[in-house]
Write a structure and sequence with these properties.
Blueprint lengths: L4 H15 L6 H9 L9 E5 L4 H14 L4 E4 L11 E3 L2 E2 L2 H20 L7 H16 L3 E5 L16 E4 L7 H4 L3 H8 L9 E3 L3 H14 L3 E5 L11 E12 L2 E9 L4 E7 L4 H19 L6 H9 L8 E5 L2 E4 L5 H14 L4 E6 L7 H8 L5 E4 L13 H5 L5 E4 L3 H17 L4 E6 L2 H13 L2 H7 L5
Parallel strand pairs: 1-5, 1-6, 2-5, 6-7, 7-8, 8-9, 13-17, 14-15, 14-17, 15-16
Antiparallel strand pairs: 2-3, 3-4, 9-10, 10-11, 12-13
């Protein structure tokens, strides 16, 4: 008798606690051989980078789904449910299906250790599940998000049709290396000979990615945030012509872009922020490359695919009353993008931040980007064992914000923030609550908000503090 869903989830949790992050391909390759190499039966788009890779995955899969293809999507981490990581045409894998797959894979894991090999990590098992799930479902194409780095990531066992490196900035330095060059080298490890590469990387990171691609004979498509003054010899490029936030009160932006094949005007993207305009342009370049490789694609399908994309937890307007935005920024570059958006769109709002940042992240870099915008910062504990000394950022925040509060309980932190915003509103002032610092934190916040009606929250305001 196989595992049920909850037993399967307990097993996955046990794997996560057993090894943590441990890069390398030998365990993954050995496991896939035992499973019959399901990864060899599929076509792929492989998407890495520091920030935005999940958003680009969602956009590419949405556009391809609009063409009528059966599209697999593997991303990580999940926000609320483990099943979010495995989707076909944006429908999550069924709990009983994930339980079946883990039941089938588990004996192979035990046999590997019995034969003296290292036990695969939780992420390696997750990637193996994705390969097996998509192969059995016979998807037309799978969109894979790199877990961490690139060269030694468990997803880097494939031969993709298109490779993407969204951008590169400092993150995971203890694993990938202390310098931007070292991190870029790791991420450039997903580039395959002759396979086109799409990237919005700049500066030193761009140079390393371009040099790697040239050495491997891989065409490079460079993504610019504005029309380039000049392009390199033989360089292919796409660029963002313009971006306008909002459309008739909608949450998102209208962009005009120059793609590889044509110019696209009035593309609606229901994800706000300048960086999401760049991500959308990256996705357009990817599907145009697939079109050049024989995939059917019309201009209307690009418009439809981008207009219907859904990617929670990234500048997500979760509650309109009181105004509440969630963003999973978990490194300084992500925090900087969030700060730019808030300055541009909510410059006349008083701001409360709820921040929970993992111990292995650049806490000071994130706080220094976000706290200066806030009148009040509420520090809370991010979920999971990596929270460490989570309250330490309160001292850093005091250098910037007028008031800093500590609320270990996330529900209490949220209700404290809502109460402050409500007090401002009663005075006739605009207020905004923004929660950020960790995708794990955002996932828990979404659960809480879904479980509690705003009217009930308002009744509790006076009970907090």
């Amino acid at each position: 008798m196989g595992l049920n869903y909850w037993e399967a989830m307990a097993y996955i949790k046990q794997l996560a606690g057993r090894r943590g992050i441990h890069l390398g391909l030998s365990r993954m390759e050995r496991l896939l051989v035992r499973l019959g190499n399901p990864q060899q039966k599929l076509s792929y788009v492989h998407i890495g980078g520091t920030n935005g890779k999940g958003s680009v995955c969602a956009m590419v899969s949405s556009i391809l789904q609009s063409t009528g293809l059966r599209v697999g999507l593997f991303t990580s981490p999940h926000l609320e449910r483990y099943t979010e990581r495995f989707q076909i045409n944006r429908k999550e894998i069924a709990p009983e299906e994930i339980a079946r797959l883990i039941t089938e894979i588990q004996p192979h894991l035990e046999q590997m250790t019995a034969e003296g090999y290292e036990y695969p990590t939780e992420f390696e098992v997750s990637a193996a599940i994705a390969f097996k799930f998509f192969a059995e479902a016979r998807v037309d194409l799978a969109v894979l998000e790199v877990g961490l780095g690139g060269e030694l990531d468990a997803t880097n066992v494939i031969q993709p049709l298109v490779t993407v490196i969204t951008n590169v900035s400092l993150d995971h330095q203890s694993i990938l290396g202390a310098s931007l060059a070292q991190i870029t080298q790791a991420k450039a490890g997903i580039i395959k000979p002759g396979v086109p590469v799409v990237t919005a990387a700049t500066g030193e990171a761009w140079s390393i990615i371009n040099d790697t691609a040239q050495r491997l004979g891989s065409p490079v498509i460079r993504v610019f945030s504005s029309p380039p003054l000049e392009k390199g010899t033989g360089e292919s490029a796409v660029w963002l012509q313009s971006s306008v936030e909002g459309r008739e009160g909608d949450w998102g932006q209208t962009i005009e872009v120059q793609g590889l094949e044509r110019k696209y005007q009035d593309l609606w993207v229901p994800l706000p922020g300048e960086h999401q305009g760049i991500n959308a342009l990256t996705a357009v370049a990817v599907v145009e490359l697939l079109h050049q490789q024989g995939f059917a694609l019309t201009e209307a399908e690009i418009y439809k695919g981008l207009a219907t994309v859904n990617w929670p937890g990234r500048l997500e307007l979760m509650v309109s009353d009181p105004l509440t935005i969630l963003d999973g920024a978990h490194n300084p570059a992500g925090a900087q993008r969030l700060a730019r958006f808030l300055r541009r769109v909510f410059s006349d709002y008083r701001l409360v931040f709820v921040l929970g940042i993992l111990e292995d992240k650049d806490r000071y870099g994130i706080v220094s980007e976000l706290a200066p915008l806030a009148e009040v910062v509420i520090v809370t504990a991010p979920p999971g064992p990596r929270a460490g000394n989570w309250a330490v950022i309160a001292e850093q925040a005091k250098s910037y914000a007028r008031q800093v509060l500590i609320r270990e309980s996330l529900p209490e932190a949220l209700m404290t923030g809502w109460r402050i915003v409500e007090q401002w509103r009663q005075k006739g002032e605009n207020g905004l609550l923004c929660i950020s610092g960790s995708l794990y934190l955002i996932g828990e916040v979404r659960k809480i908000i879904k479980q509690v009606e705003i009217k009930k929250i308002k009744k509790k305001y006076e009970k907090i503090i």
